[in-house]
Specification:
The chain has about 375 residues and is α/β, with parallel strands linked by helices. Helices cover about 35% and strands about 15% of the residues. The strands form three sheets. Strands 2-8-7-6-5-3-4 form a seven-stranded mixed beta sheet, with helices on both faces. A four-stranded antiparallel beta sheet has the order 9-10-13-12, covered by helices on one side. Pathway: Amino-acid biosynthesis; L-histidine biosynthesis; L-histidine from 5-phospho-alpha-D-ribose 1-diphosphate: step 7/9.
Length: about 375
Amino acid sequence: MSDDLRPKPQPGILDISPYVPGKSGAPGSKVVKLSSNESPLGASPKAIEAFRSVADRLDIYPEGSSKILREALGEVHGIDPELIVCGNGSDDLLHLLAQCYLGDGDEAVMSQYGFSVYPIITKAAGAAIVMVDDDGYTADVDGLLAAVTPKTKIVWLANPNNPTGTYLTDAEVRRLHAGLRKDILLVIDSAYAEYVTAADYSVGLDLVAEASNVVMVRTFSKMGLAAARIGWMVGPAEVVDVINRIRGPFNVNLPAQLAGAAATRDVEFTAQLKAHNAKWRDYITEELTGNHMHVVPSQANFVLVLFPDADHAALAFETLMQRGLIVREVGKSYGIPDGLRISIGSEQAMIGVVGILKALVKIA
């Protein structure tokens, strides 16, 4: 058969590098996974109970708009549930935003070390991605604004950012927004908001309420429900209406809706996660910084550790892997060959990582 007669994808699709998740280890092997920024304390017991409660109702379609979950989110976060859209993970919602607001000839702007999904969804929509150099691993507001052209339709901002863990203050996010045209959509991806301890940080809800061109996207994946795949977005009524027109009618399953609602209301468990994360994030930062390594200050549930060079980073990765500790390489996916992203895990895991790396770099 001639190649000309085979189905062909849209132009540019085959130029997209697929997303590569963190390694999980070989089946059956005993490893500690510190590569995907998952909850070190598991899921909320109330969320687990809610998930199990619908085991005998799997034959029935869920309510299509995730009303149960939207109402819980509105209750806890003080948001009108009608301004919330839920999705099959936050990636689902990011894809929908790109599909609705980007097209051929458009551009989307992002920071140099921003979340690697942004280029994928931008190019999939037929638009071009514009990368802006970071300022010391932190998004550069002046650089982002300078990159805006008449073709710009979206600015992607992960805050805190993955994989660096750095963040923009509320004042800087507002300065970024103030410099954008009203027809540019600012997407604030607050995937790690539950773990932020900085007093000058904002999740973005106030800005969403004040503006007509800002949306905030969140996820449950970092707070114990990664397997359930739940994301949510809040935005202006006009944007919510647009997304609801094309999202899947049952894009969040019933067990996930109920687990998400229970996890949302379990504020005590969320507080425990935050406290555990802050303690061991501070520990690993203090212990590793200055030992021929540099830990980028993080407000997320992971740290980015920079080594003297790419060879040291590769050696550290392999050594940790051999000891059953899987971390995330960020060379190919993010262009940081001398770095490793390490999720905050259990006390035992954090002490183990620190001991191995301090000894390794001293020897190397």
